[in-house]
Amino acid sequence: NSATSKEVEEVADGKICKSCAADISFYFKTWKQATVADIERHLEYRYENRKAAEAFRTSYYVDMGYGSKLCIDNDARKFTVCGDEDIAETNPDIFDLSQLANCRIKVRGHYEDRDDNDDSKMSKYKYEYVFDLQIKDNPWIKTISTFIGSNEGRYDKHYLSEKWDKYARADIQKRGNDLLRVVHAILEEQQ
Questions:
Q1: Most buried by CB count within 10 Å: which residue of 5, 87, 104, 172?
Q2: pLDDT tens string 47-89
């Protein structure tokens, strides 16, 4: 619904209340370019999604690090990417397995100027590992991108120093390979 109070967010052709904006999917990245009517349809989708989230039963999951995981509900043929919180409570987007289109892992690196206490032992070259799931047949979400993290060694957010790279990179590559294996198995099953 269009908002008339001061607690509003601008969209393409009007305003929505902040409460409505808070219910928008995390992965609907272009919502500010959407119309009020689009947002209303999206909020209906989110309401229906809540029912799917409440019914979701994790058969297995792949840990992506940083408290994120790819969860599969084999019985309902659904999946989600979520945190460690209760799925029914947090209402992450729930997708049919048939909506999986593809996946990839992007490894990017860049130089970063840092003021470390022990600068001689820290590389300034940082790595970033991103897992992308391409989604089909969803008007709101085309890609889910999330960082893959490590529980090995020292890391700063999603960047790894070269010093700790040996263990952390192996851990991240294992998580990435596990993610690819699971998604590719689902995709092959659908053919």
A1: 172
A2: 999 999 999 999 999 998 888 899 999 999 999 999 888 999 9
Closest CA to 182 of 65, 97, 106, 87: 97
What does the alpha-carbon distance between residue 181 and residue 101 come to, in Å, rounded to a whole number?
14
Structure-block tokens of residue 92: 């992450």
Which pair of tokens denotes residue 139?
């008007």
Look at the pTM and tell me if it is higher than 0.70.
yes
Task: Return all residues near 105 (Cβ < 8 A) that are at least 6 apart.
Answer: 129, 130, 131, 132, 148, 176, 179, 180
Which is nearest to 159 in space by CA: 132, 110, 126, 118? Answer: 126
First to last CA, the chain: 41
C-beta separation of 27 from 13 below 8 A: no
